[in-house]
Amino acid sequence: MTGRSRTGVRLTALVSASLLALVTGCGDGGDTAGGGTLVGLVTKTDTNPFFVKMKEGAQQAAGNSGATVQSFAGKQDGDNQSQVDAIENLIGAGAKGILITPNDSKAIVPSVDKARQAGLLVIALDTQLEPADAADATFATDNYQAGLLIGQWAKAKFEAEGKQAKIALLDLNPNQVSVDVQRDQGFLEGFGVDVKDKNRIGDESDPRIVGHDVTDGAPEGGRTAMENLLQKDPGINLVYTINEPAAAGAYEALKAAGKEKDVVIVSVDGGCPGVENVKSGIIGATSQQYPLKMAQLGVEAIAKFAQDGTKPQNTAGKDFVDTGVTLISDQPASGVESKDSAWGLQNCWG
Amino acid sequence: MSTTLSTSHSPGGNPLGGDDAKRSPLARLQHLLHAQATIGPAVVLLASVVVFALLSERFLTPGNISLIVQQVAVVGTLAVGQTIVILTAGIDLSCGAIMVLSSIVMAKVAADTGLPGPFALLLGFLVGTLCGLLNGLLVTRLKLPPFIVTLGTLNVFFALNLWYSESATIRGTDMPSLLLWTGQTINIGGTRITYGSIMMVVLVAAMAFALKNTAWGRHVYATGDDLEASRLSGIRTGRVLLSVYAAAGAVYALSAWILIGRIASASPQAGQMDNLDSITAVVIGGTSLFGGRGAIVGSLIGALIVGVFRNGLALAGVDVLWQTLAVGVLIIVAVSLDQWIRKVKP
């Protein structure tokens, strides 16, 4: 071995060690502050700001109600196995309840059953289980309502301006997951399109629809999908997007084609960057949801269940607890209630 | 794995014939492909362009073609780095993570500290190169398989990216315009082309030249073909590998710059499937996963084939499901072809 390669070994060791220290130094593997009731939070991923916010909300509520939160997450959207492991770990750790945003609403049900048989209260956040009553309760946005609001807003706007709509729909992915379907179909119904099967994206035959494409809910996907749909029909003037990152990507495609002034984008989420985009006119209207509130209510419900065994009650007329949705727009449309972007920025997440 | 192609287009005869004059047409084709790795993918690309042009009249417009090139610019540049790693019989699963980390560093440093564009860019390139260098050191000094090393560093780099960015996207309005420059367009022959697309083409040409016409390039091929023989013949294989991984890291930083320009923001959640997409482009482009055989131009063609399929099927109104399936079939066909070519008799 030459001196040079020994230096190499030393350098490698040094770099590896410092990286390791860095990574372990700022991880949050089951931080257990406080004591008392143990609450498990299992999110879809730990990368999406929506879930980062949810974690914050859970930690805050835990501080107030003397509970302890342990957080787990899937590695990526759709990762069911990590969530199964997390539930098993939480049962073993003696948790009183679990808050979960399921990556696979059906596949997680057997694990949830196991937890409930072990006496835990299981609450689905943001996304319902299938069937919904597989969990003790669901705290979520009414996604159909979220879609309906932006659809109604767009309809009123297009009618006021006397324009004929040409609609592009930028969905999540090919899997037809519930949140994707509900927002898409809600939007179309709000706009006055016959949606045929409410549980199916893309079975409509309305000539105003140019087409659907998928974005993975990310800017890059949003841009590519918008580019391809514009190639299909350059006359598109109304774009529905599954979320605000996809909307940001779609806007870039429109800008590149010199069409950003003639096209209205509507979206769902109400994250701070998205509301900023409403303020600067990139997004016409968005339906804001409240992940912090979902997590807070969830932790409080489990703390209460641990105290006296009471379970949360659903919102009247729905099979879940509706945590509310607000239309955010700086161009109010007649007959559709909305708040402006200033209000939206005070109440946004992420 | 079956390595025989459908023999419907071979008029009988054993494809593994004897000397040149007596070879069947199929065996001659096999020889041609063995000598020229990019011919196969080029034929596939042309054929798919013809088919989609027939399916949709919008497909073969200059605007749409420049769009496809733009859409593959990120994966296409990643594939350049991926190719040189695969040529050395390695594989780089961490390329997407390095790209995203570089893009976050470029954007966030500039947004937080007001560092001027060129310096932010330089810092991003430095981070990319260092990440690549770390991969190279682990492969050469600790003698670990590249697959394992980059599987590990993929997670390390991704975690660092989430930690540094706090999972928050940095908006284009908060960063210097130089970072967004790759998304700007220039008018060439009546068609608007992004600087990012041009950069990809220039990078491919430069890397192809380096591989073909420099001693370093020949060493890369030799090291991938037979590490031990190369070492015994006096090539400093450790240094070659180190230089390859570091160069790949710098190339991924270039992808990062192109990515920022394309989405006018820097998102910590971008590029999560890009490592596999870049490997797909390399494989479809005729580069062998066993090292020592293939070409950069092929990888660009491979990326374009995938881009053409996605765009063409979308224009024809085909469901996304079938787009994904088509890409899967392409991969299998490409690797089968590669296996068959390797069986060539001298």
UniProtKB/TrEMBL annotation, chain A:
Protein name, as recorded: Fructose transport system substrate-binding protein
Pfam families: Peripla_BP_4 (PF13407)
GO cellular-component term (any): cell envelope
InterPro entries, alphabetized: Peripla_BP_I, SBP_2_dom
Signal peptide coordinates: 1-21
Keyword Cell cycle: no
Family in the record: Belongs to the bacterial solute-binding protein 2 family.
Location, primary (coarse class): other
CDD domains with a match to the protein in the record: PBP1_ABC_sugar_binding-like
Regions annotated as coiled coil: none
Keywords on record: Signal
Residue ranges of every copy of the Periplasmic binding protein domain listed in the record: 39-307
Start-end of Basic and acidic residues biased regions: 202-215
Gene Ontology MF annotations: carbohydrate binding
Region of interest: Disordered: 202-221
Top-level taxon in the UniProt lineage: Bacteria
Cell compartments where the protein resides: Cell envelope
Automatic annotation (TrEMBL), chain B:
Membrane spanning residue stretches: 32-55, 84-107, 119-138, 144-164, 193-211, 240-260, 281-309, 321-341
Localization per record: Cell membrane
GO MF annotation terms: transmembrane transporter activity
Main location: membrane
Compositionally skewed regions (Polar residues) per UniProt: 1-11
Superkingdom of origin organism: Bacteria
Keyword terms: Cell membrane, Membrane, Transmembrane, Transmembrane helix
Keyword Oxidoreductase: no
Membrane-related topology note: Multi-pass membrane protein
InterPro entries, alphabetized: ABC_transp_permease
Residue ranges of the region described as Disordered: 1-20
GO cellular component annotations of the record: plasma membrane
Pfam families: BPD_transp_2 (PF02653)
PANTHER family: ABC TRANSPORTER PERMEASE PROTEIN YPHD-RELATED-RELATED, RIBOSE IMPORT PERMEASE PROTEIN RBSC
Protein name, UniProt field: Fructose transport system permease protein
